Amino acid sequence: MVKKYVVSTLMLVSMFALQLSANPVDSVTMTSTGYGAKDTITFWGGGHSGLTVYAGLFMFNKTGSTGTGNLIDNGTIGGFCMDLSEYLASGPKAYEVLDVSAGPVPTTFLGGGMGQAKADYLSELWGRYFDSSWMAGGTYTAAQNAQAEAFQAAIWEIIYEDMPTTSAGWDVTIDGTAGDKGFRAANLDYTLANSWLGSLTGNYQGANLTALSYCGSQDVLTAIPEPATVAFLSIGLLLAVSRGYKTMNG
Questions:
Q1: DSSP secondary structure of 87-153
Q2: Rounded to an integer, what distance in angstroms lies between the CA atom of residue 136 and that of residue 144?
Q3: Which of 126, 140, 167, 206 could be a cystine partner for 144, CB 3.0 to 4.6 Å?
Q4: Is residue 106 reached through a cis peptide bond, with omega within 30 degrees of 0 on the bond before it?
Q5: For the segment 43-83, what is each residue's pLDDT rounded down to a tens digit?
Q6: pLDDT of residue 11
Q7: DSSP 8-state symbol, 70
Q8: pTM of the full predicted structure?
């Protein structure tokens, strides 16, 4: 009975792997609906030199998804820009769901995906300092706008700068990376951004983030809602428990 169960399990895993290879792209279809809290910032990085733009929370309307994109409910989504080299897409677009460590795409100014260490810092930053009031709608206070802008700058700093020896080495006003890479910014509350960055440890259990990527436009960093995360993990736990029970009972 044990051998039969092992063979059946291997067949199930093989079928699952084939299904994944046949449908490799998990997606989220959404349309930009404007901004939440935001303010103007001037930055250097991603091929731009002294470009002034809005920095803050992007707002989207999600209307469809496939695969792991289904973990995010349809409706309003808030996210931050990951990609300095491209501009925000207009109209409904199907964004590919990526692991944060693999983004942003293109990787021209990083030499590859950002890696897991930076992804962990972003998770901690979001888990400790993201404020849902930045996407509440209506009119935002000057403080909320400044906070959302500082949060965006902190995200860019983590993604585009070389990893410092300690988190205290991050500074959004200084480009500490040699060559045409790196990031720096002006016209923002840099004290707040740097205080958040300097407090990070890299091993804090933060938010469950995902990267949404669309070729030709900015990639977006957003969080998977906690109930969906718990449900996803629970499915895995139930499968593991079921496997153990069947093995013990032949």
A1: ----S-EEEEEE-GGG-SSS-TTTTS---HHHHHHHHHHHHHH--GGGGS-SPPPHHHHHHHHHHHH
A2: 11
A3: 140
A4: yes
A5: 999 999 999 999 999 999 999 999 999 999 999 999 999 99
A6: 42
A7: G
A8: 0.82
